[in-house]
Amino acid sequence: MKFSNFASRFNDSSGIVQLMDDLGNAMNNDSDLLMLGGGNPSHIPIIQEHIRKSFLNLLDDPVLFSNAIGNYESPQGNRIFIETIVKMLNKEYDWGIKYENVALTVGSQSGFFFLFNMFGGKYADGTHKKILLPITPEYIGYRDVGLVSDLFYSYKPKIEKLDNNFFKYRIDFEALEIRKNTAAICVSRPTNPTGNVLTDEEMSKLFSIAEQNQIPLIIDNAYGEPFPGIIFTKTSPFWNKNTIFCMSLSKVGMPGVRTGIIVADSPVIKSIRNMNAAINLSTPNFGPMIANELIESGDLLALSKAEIKPFYQRKMEHAISVIRKNFSNIDYYIHVPEGAIFLWLWLPNLNVSSDDLYERLKSRGTLVISGSHFFPGLDDNWEHKDECLRITYSMDKDVVEKGIEIIAEEIRAINASS
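Above: the chain sequence. Below: its structure as tokens.
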């Protein structure tokens, strides 16, 4: 059977297909796999209990329940929830946004599909415009969302080695070039996969560059403030009409309801609304209707600060201690974990590629993600791309401990055989 060029972009070798296939098999089947590769949030009991109560309140209200399952929602998203988001963001940050500045999507992944193809790709005048990723590594899910190939260009970071086997990536502003065909700039903050948090100074420079070149700055805020607040350093969230600020309900513990939130100038929101109508007809009801009570009451923001952030910080510290215990006599660095739910390992003297290490670990029942998938738009034969792994610390402690132990064993076996 023959397929179109569009279908050929979604083949089995895609990093995001590999990631979600492994994640789904590990999380939803009776499996002994040690899942250290996915982005599934932890099941935090106190958070799940608050979500459950809100869900039960929805079920107990006949009118709300009937609307949730019996009516199509607006393609812009549930109006009550959007107005709650507007009120919350204006209260927290004084952004001055309105209902016309917010749209919902079927998860943040579909939101980025819309945004990247809204700005990047072929234009009526024949030009081919691209999205600039000013620093890589970047999120694995960006790579394959383009309707056309060659949608991104990106740059290597500056690498700063620190004490205690830590290192940090920084934007190389001296190398950064805004090409004539640049349509938008995009960064994740905190960064998936590395846990890097761009400083306020770095963000200020990007804001200025975007405004000077009259292109939008897209901020992927899936892990940041105000929720879920999985960020371990001080930041100042910022928005203006030249900024597209993206959030999600996934990492607060609701990945199954597939709800993305986009804050942008009204023409962008109108386009998102139209795309939702054409592709999805409408947006989901359950996620916004469950979360609305949590946000309106202030509970979600309070829980993000008092429960979600400390929970992941403890898990991050535990995972680092396990790595230090098991990685003696291994040459390794850990990117400074400033947010998100991952540790990014750099193995500079690894004698096989990270893709090969992934396959070896998978054969032992331990799933990670090879670092090679996290460099979209970097057309550079940089050996660093094949020396890194992303592992998650969101799983149960025994899974994290056993998985890291197997990773260390496999690296030693590789080094011993070389």
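The mean pLDDT is 93.
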